[in-house]
Amino acid sequence: MTEPAAPLEVVLITGMSGSGKSVAIHALEDAGFYCVDNLPPELLLAFVELEQKSGAQRVAIAVDVRSATSLPLVPAQLKELRSRNVQVRPLFLDATTDTLVRRFSETRRRHPLSGSLPSAESGGIAHDGQHALVDAIELERELLADLREEAHVIDTSVIRPTQLQAHVKSLLSAPVSQLTLVFESFAFKRGIPVDADYVFDVRMLPNPHYEPALRDLTGKDEAVVAFLQQHADVEQMYGHIEQFLARWLEPLARDHRSYVTVAIGCTGGQHRSVYLVERLAVAFGERWITLKRHRELDAA
């Protein structure tokens, strides 16, 4: 008896201009996906149907604000694809406005929604041009808000292209049909991740940085773990986060959430937040698919 064909897996990549969509596309190509950039949403259903008939298994499609007038079609199209037994995995790449302005300034590219920005022959965008660029970025956020709500968000503000590639590939390893928990440690001094669903501030906990023997270690090292475990405040913080997530993950799963990102921040993103991410990932890995990210350590 012939086994039924595996369902087609479609990764839909959207996000802010300048947030790294081309890097994500390259990562998907490396992972064996057939990739199409800037597909007009009007063609999405027909294209996926054609790929199904051809026996394709993994397809990645990038849709961006250049198709602004037809972007409202996409949420209903994703629902239709799921009804056709297509495994849809929407990813949204985001970054802070300051980061996007800097990237456009450095590359001297025009934003697809901007009018006539001043030329950057002097080495940067003029003040009026920068104001227009910020307006274009904020308009883009409005136009993409519904797609962002549907997708798993990756904040590319302070990560390198190789980190983004690793994040995309790790997400692909998780089953589409199950809730995936992403635990992320970060440093408040480098900003709060914009992709976080929940943010926990643990800067009030005892800091191993002030112990000379522990300063250069991380929250993964046994000496740091031992130091933190001897403090009641650390245990209480862990217990409160664990209880909160244990209470609300089931309702989130019933609401058909595919990903939940839990960000835990300390001052440097090296000791306390890393320790708690490691410990929580182990605890919740017994029930849920879990992924770990250490934003500052991974960038080293």
What is shown here, in short?
This protein is an alpha/beta fold and about 300 residues long.
Describe it for me?
With 300 residues, the chain is an alpha/beta fold. The protein contains 10 helices and 9 strands. The protein has a 5-stranded parallel sheet with strand order 2-3-1-4-5, sandwiched between helices. Helix 2 links the parallel strand 2 and strand 3. Helix 1 crosses helix 6 (161-172). The chain is globular.
What's the Cα radius of gyration?
21 Å
Order of strands in the sheet with the most strands? 2-3-1-4-5
The geometry reads as: globular
Helix content: 40-55%
Instruction: Profile the largest sheet.
Output: 5 strands, parallel
Number of helices: 10
What is the arithmetic mean of pLDDT?
90
Q: What is the CA-CA span between the terminal residues?
A: 52 Å
Strand content: 15-25%
How many strand elements?
9
Summarize the helix and strand pattern as letters: EHEHEHEHHEHEEHHEHEH
* Coarse structural class: alpha/beta
**Low-confidence parts, pLDDT < 50 over ≥5 residues?**
116-127
